[in-house]
Amino acid sequence: MLLYQQDLIVTGSEKMFHRLIMIYRNDRNEDQGYTLFLDQKSGRIYKAYHRKVNQTFYWISFFLTLVVLRELNTAHLAIKQPLLMILILVFELIVSYFIGRALYKMYYMPLLKEIYITKDMLEDYAYKGKSVLKKDVIIAIILILVLIMFTLLYVFTFWFIWLLGSFFVAVLISFMLCFFSRERFKMCKRV
């Protein structure tokens, strides 16, 4: 199997210079969510607990978003030159890609802890992870369709709100694309 030498993941004092493969994600509300990763090179399993965020943060963010969206409701970014519009959209995609990857690393990587499980448990998690992968693919496809719709709405109406919406959806897509790897698909195919 291929290993990528691109991501630096620090767990305790150990440094790994390859990409971990997501096996399973548990995000049920009654438990603290977690994600299991497999290090193919060493065969180690890592568990990343999901962060619990204060509800006050969500409510403040929600109301601030409403205020900003209300102010931007009528803002137009009329660009008559197609080349400039294409450059803006490409710039948006590039920036959203790097922001999504940074959010992924901030969300999962600092919380990694090595765990020890049996081979049967690993196979059970891999089997459950197959349905998680299907959900992730469906969500990614829906987000891509929403991104296309928002981008087309911006191109035809020049409303800044559609450009902003497409940017946030592109960040979500970039975040989700970090879940996918060739190895994860191969592993789910074998299960």
* Strands, count: 6
The description of the largest β-sheet is: 4 strands, antiparallel
**C-alpha end-to-end distance:** 16 Å
What would the average pLDDT be, to the nearest integer? 82
DSSP summary: helix tally: 5
Indicate the percent of residues in helices: 55-70%
Instruction: Give the uncertain stretches in residue-range form.
Output: 1-17
For the largest sheet, list the strands in their spatial order: 3-4-5-6
Supply Rg. 20 Å
Shape: elongated
Can you tell me the number of structural domains? 1
Order of helices and strands: EEEEEHHEHHH
Strand residues, percent = 5-15%
Question: Structural class per helix/strand content?
Answer: alpha+beta
Give the structure's gist in a few sentences:
By secondary structure, this protein is an alpha+beta fold.
